[in-house]
Amino acid sequence: MKKLHLAISTNKIEETIKDYSVRLEMEPCSIIPNEYALWRTDSLNVSIRQDSACKSGELRHLGWEDSSAQEFSKDVDVNGIVWERFNAQQQADEINELWPEAKYQPK
After folding, report:
1. What is the reported pTM?
2. What is the CA radius of gyration of the chain?
3. 59 strand-pairing partners
């Protein structure tokens, strides 16, 4: 199964978590205080991150959470947008590598 992945930058992480939780009708499945949040709905995989390299509200990258992905991969499309492809466990491994205190495991 594939889910579209959207990764967005923010400089208002707490406000964005509240706003997106309403929009997505669920709480994030992973939160790193003051840095990151992840929602996994039936059709979407959405992450937000405090990222000084990007303007608030800017697209960080797109991708696919794909249960058949054997490894994490990324490439760049003709418009310069980074596209990632990964399975849920590979994303969890990346989160836990960046933030070991997260101890995130997908359901």
Report:
1. 0.93
2. 13
3. 8
